[in-house]
């Protein structure tokens, strides 16, 4: 089974990203061009050493860690991204393909097995997690939620091959589908350029020849291994799925929990904040010991999920309090009464500042690494959701005195 690497050089991406990240954190100059393998290893190790806690695994000089979690189940990390793979006796099943790990995914798998990659599972459509999937074999089975397939068909990224097997409801209306239906009705071409006549997408699949399993769950049995794939509503993204290995008590759920760290900015750039909050309880409904969360320095545990759930709960409470207490009079004098946008921006900035400072009193960098970096963005995101999604409008609501 031949691996695909002719159209993509993920090692360049990885070199630039890790070298720049390490240099930035360590106060070193960031140079243009690519770094040597030795420079990358040194920069990566320096970065990991600078940001690691005692429980974090050490990244070897080769630039990645591959470690067995159980009988035939492994994780790979370079210190920033994480993936899972399983050996089955009939082929390798791999979950995701971050470009920052890139070719080292194949090297890591090759260290533990000579089985070919036969199945690829996408956690969700985002390129930072599956943008190196072009490295995997053309004839592998690519499995994802139906919404993932629709996004990938729309974007036409050759580095993210379209799934060959999808699961989910048969009919899910999306703006893309509405656009395509209009094109079908008028005999035209949809605005996204996706053919409507069964022509393959850049990923090689069409909606008619792709295998579609109807339902919110899909069980992938390969050899002696089993993965349970569940879609439980939108969270970080509309298509983000739970990937559960019940025999090993290992759960892959990406871009929601960041073990030991504060989430990435804007509550992990999540598209559905209510779903993001709810996802913490959904994670804890699984019987697992190990969480592969997709990012940063170590694996997670149920305790990490509970810790982050508590943090998000406190953040929401502080955001509600800020909306209730910050008034327009607090900011209008500074902004000027004739500039509506400046006044509103000042109001959002002030409520975000108040909520962030209150949350940092309890959730500082000593509890969640990076808390001082992204806290105000999290507060602003929570306030936006409370206002727009939940109707908690403060001085802009019907009951202006109560903040509701």
Fold and architecture overview:
It is a single chain. The protein is an alpha/beta fold and 404 residues long. The chain has two domains: 10-300, Ribonuclease Z/Hydroxyacylglutathione hydrolase-like (Metallo-beta-lactamase, Chain A, 4-Layer Sandwich); 308-396, no CATH class. It has helices at 10-26, 37-51, 103-112, 127-130, 146-155, 175-186, 265-269, 273-284, 302-325, 329-335, 340-360, 371-388, and strands at 65-70, 73-77, 82-87, 92-95, 117-121, 141-145, 165-168, 211-214, 217-222, 225-230, 242-245, 250-252, 290-292. The strands form two sheets. Strands 1-2-3-4-5-6-7-8 form an eight-stranded mixed β-sheet. The chain is elongated, with a radius of gyration of 23 Å. The model is unreliable at 1-38 and 178-204 (pLDDT under 50).
């Amino acid at each position: 089974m031949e691996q695909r690497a002719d159209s993509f050089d993920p090692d360049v991406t990885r070199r630039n990203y890790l070298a720049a990240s390490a240099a930035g954190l360590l106060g070193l100059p960031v140079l243009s061009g690519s770094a040597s393998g030795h420079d990358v290893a040194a920069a990566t190790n320096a970065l990991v050493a600078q940001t690691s806690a005692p429980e974090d695994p050490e990244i070897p000089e080769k630039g990645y860690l591959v470690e067995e979690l159980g009988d035939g189940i492994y994780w790979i990390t370079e210190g920033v991204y994480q993936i899972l793979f399983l050996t089955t006796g009939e082929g390798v099943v791999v979950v995701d393909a971050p470009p920052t790990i890139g070719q080292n995914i194949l090297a890591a798998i090759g260290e533990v097995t000579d089985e070919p990659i036969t199945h690829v599972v996408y956690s969700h459509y985002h390129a930072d997690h599956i943008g190196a999937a072009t490295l995997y074999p053309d004839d592998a089975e690519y499995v994802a939620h139906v919404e993932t397939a629709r996004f990938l068909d729309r974007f036409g990224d050759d580095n993210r091959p379209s799934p060959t097997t999808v699961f989910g409801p048969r009919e899910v209306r999306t703006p893309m589908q509405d656009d395509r239906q209009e094109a079908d009705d008028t005999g035209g071409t949809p605005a996204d350029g996706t053919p409507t006549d069964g022509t393959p997408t850049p990923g090689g699949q069409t909606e008619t020849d792709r295998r579609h399993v109807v339902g919110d769950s899909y069980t992938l049995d390969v050899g002696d291994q089993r993965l349970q794939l569940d879609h439980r509503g939108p969270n970080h993204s509309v298509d983000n799925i739970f990937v559960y290995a019940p025999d090993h008590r290992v759960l892959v759920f990406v871009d929601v929990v960041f073990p030991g760290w504060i989430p990435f900015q804007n509550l992990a750039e999540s598209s559905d904040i209510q779903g993001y909050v709810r996802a913490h309880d959904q994670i804890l409904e699984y019987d697992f010991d190990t969480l592969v969360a997709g990012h940063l320095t170590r694996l997670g545990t149920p305790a990490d999920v509970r810790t982050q759930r508590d943090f998000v709960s406190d953040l929401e409470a502080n955001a509600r309090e800020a909306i209730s207490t910050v008034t327009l009079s607090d900011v209008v004098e500074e902004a000027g009464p004739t500039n509506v946008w400046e006044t509103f921006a000042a109001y959002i900035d002030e409520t975000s500042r108040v909520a962030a400072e209150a949350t940092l009193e309890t959730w500082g960098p000593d509890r969640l690494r990076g808390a001082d970096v992204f806290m105000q963005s999290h507060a602003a995101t929570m306030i936006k959701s409370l206002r727009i999604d939940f109707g908690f409008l403060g001085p802009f609501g019907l009951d202006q005195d109560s903040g509701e």
